[in-house]
Design goal:
The protein is of the alpha+beta class and about 70 residues long. The chain has one helix and two strands, in the order ββα. The protein has a two-stranded antiparallel sheet. It comes from Mycetocola reblochoni.
Amino acid sequence: MNCGQPVYREQLWDVGHIIDAERGGRPVAGNVGPAHRGCNRRAGGKRGGTIRSRARRAAANRDQNLRDW
């Protein structure tokens, strides 16, 4: 999923999304498959950090646009 390499039974693996939710992927059976545990968690951490940062920036910008009456 994340690195493009095959996942073998004896390896540690997670169920990963083929198309990530942030790119329009849905949480359905046809959009998931085996992914190397490390690759999947590294990718998820980066995306999660990006989403959190984006939310923080939006909140900061929203606060800057408030006016005192």
